[in-house]
Amino acid sequence: xxxxxxxxxxxxxxxxxxxxxxxxxxxxxxxxxxxxxxxxxxxxxxxxxxxxxxxxxxxxxxxxxxxxxxxxxxxxxxxxxxxxxxxxxxxxxxxxxxxxxxxxxxxxxxxxxxxxxxxxxxxxxxxxxxxxxxxxxxxxxxxxxxxxxxxxxxxxxxxxxxxxxxxxxxxxxxxxxxxxxxxxxxxxxxxxxxxxxxxxxxxxxxxxxxxxxxxxxxxxxxxxxxxxxxxxxxxxxxxxxxxxxxxxxxxxxxxxxxxxxxxxxxxxxxxxxxxxxxxxxxxxxxxxxxxxxxxxxxxxxxxxxxxxxxxxxxxxxxxxxxxxxxxxxxxxxxxxxxxxxxxxxxxxxxxxxxxxxxxxxxxxxxxxxxxxxxxxxxxxxxxxxxxxxxxxxxxxxxxxxxxxxxxxxxxxxxxxxxxxxxxxxxxxxxxxxxxxxxxxx
Length: 441
Prior knowledge:
Layout: H1 24-39, H2 50-59, H3 74-80, H4 86-91, H5 104-117, H6 123-128, H7 131-138, H8 143-152, H9 154-163, H10 180-184, E1 204-206, H11 210-215, H12 217-229, E2 234-236, H13 245-250, H14 253-272, E3 276-278, H15 282-295, H16 300-308, E4 309-310, H17 312-321, E5 334-339, H18 342-345, H19 352-357, E6 363-368, H20 385-402, E7 406-409, H21 412-422, H22 431-439
Parallel strand pairs: 1-2, 1-3, 3-4, 5-6, 5-7
């Protein structure tokens, strides 16, 4: 038996279609097995709340081993996991193909799915992960202003804390009446000569995402500007629904399947028509690149979309490799403190955002490879907000030390979480918006 693993991590299908996946007694056996391995290693203690919670439970038990921890306390570890995937990709030496076969995030996902199926998930969690429904409601004129005002009102936030368990200090995203879909209505992709490379078709269908549509449509607008400036026609995909990542993190696999059936049909047809797919949110890209393919490994349409979906900066750097990128920038950006989003890191594409921004003359990008602790909904929850801010503290410290002209993250929500930690009135600028500035767009 080897100590550690010298081979690249690989992933097994999730297996939610099997009876074993839903067997709670088998789940508990597997949790005990994996927790014991984690206890003997402890490399992941600084990543999130799950591992300190686990190790405290063990150290405070009568045996100081996993067998001294009550099975009902295992759920505390599960609840603290927000599926960032960093333990799997960057820390754990025992992931497959190692024979110990540790996949901590997907084990936590299995536990969340069983908890959801048992009906033990809070109403609050079901509500705040219904991003399409919330976005459609909150983007209605008058309601938009009301929601945004309530989210900034101290008394209203205390009421939300007592009734729903939304932490009063959590920085909630603003909603827009003028969504990306509304802003893009009537626009057609630029009439540009489509030039393919060995890895790109040269024309892109933009999957807006819930956040990109309802909360920060400017990111999508800036993406369209940058891509079409680089002679890449962009089509905004119509009639899509949530990618499913919020419901996946909740363990609601039936809804994930329903959303997959809707979106994949649309996206696969676009791929057949010669379009590449891009999304402005790393979590959504990862959903189509990794999670859905692992849930539905035999679905050819899912695998087709997986092969054709890209992170925006991954796509731009592929175009650069094919000598199809405009590198004539009009403005330098100075120093940039760049938070590398977890769900971008685990796509295994490298730091394409850093590489792209470094092409801009007199621009110095300083990457921060550490989780912000936001996770789509984790920081909003009263019981986890303080932990989320604690996880973010080292990132905030690095941003302060950088004394940069801009701070940024591919995950807009992580950027705003850093903003909350800084609490100095400054705001993040999304990397794609930084490119707009550099190009003079």
